[in-house]
Each structure stands twice: as structure tokens, then as C-alpha cells.
Amino acid sequence: MRMRTGVVTVVILFMMAFASGCSKADAPKPAATPGAPAVSAAAEGKTLFEQKCSVCHDIGRATARQETKEHWTEIVKAMQGKKADWISDADGAKIVEFLASEHGRK
Length: 106
Ligand code: HEC
Prior knowledge:
By secondary structure, the protein is mostly helical. Helix content is 67%, strand content 0%. The protein is built from 5 helices and no strands. Heme C binds at residues 52-53, 55-57, 61-62, 75-76, 79, 82-83, 86-87, 95. The site of heme C has 15 residues, from helix 3 and helix 4.
């Protein structure tokens, strides 16, 4: 009796592992998961910031300071105006997200 129960348990565990393995493979990739858009915007913003904001001056010009989100918005707008079509509004918004979260001031 004990033996049999053990075998049944092992078989059940095996099937469960197999089933969960299958369902994992079938599950769609959690690529565009809604829920953390602010985090990904800031992460994207970091890359954009390093690319876009380093061409005229060192990025230290920005990372050395902490500003409110409102002030970062103003600064990024001013920088957009310095080079036509270099930083789009969408890129600028992500850069502001990054700066406000990593170099922000309350
Ligand atoms: C086309 C060239 C150019 C690009 C691109 C650029 N900057 Fe600047 N930035 C300047 C110049 C020139 C100055 C200094 C003159 C001034 O303050 O107007 C400056 C000054 C600054 C300052 C100091 C401003 C102050 O008020 O003391 C900050 C902060 C700054 N930039 C951040 C950024 C950020 C963030 C980005 C990317 C979104 C960026 N810059 C992209 C040219 C640029």
C-alpha cells in the first residue's frame, strides 16, 4: 500500500511538472506587459539621454544637478530648441522621466 501511494505520488508530480512546463511554453511572452510604463519609460529615457544629450556637452552638465520634474521639462525643452529635429517631443518626455526619477528633486 505505502509503496503504491509513493509511486502514484511520483507519477502525479511528474505529470504536474510536465503540464506546467507545457503551459509555460504555450504562454505568450510578457513583452508589452502593462503595469510598469513609468519604469520602462525612465529606462528608455536613460538610453536616449546618453545618446541625445551628450553631443554638445558632457552629460554631467545634467547629472550633476537635481531638479523638479517641471524644471527638467523646461531644460529639456530649451535643449530641444538648440538643435532642430534632434530630440523629438516623445524622446524628450522619456528623458524627462529618467531625469526626474534619477536626478529629481521634490
Ligand atoms: C544642440 C546642442 C545641445 C544639446 C543636444 C543639448 N544641450 Fe544642454 N546645453 C547646450 C548649451 C550650448 C548649453 C549652455 C548654454 C545654455 O545654458 O543655454 C547647455 C546647457 C545645459 C544645461 C545647463 C543649463 C542651465 O540652465 O544651467 C543643462 C542642465 C543641459 N544643457 C542639459 C541637457 C540635456 C538634459 C539635454 C538632452 C535632453 C541637452 N542638454 C542637450 C547645448 C545642448
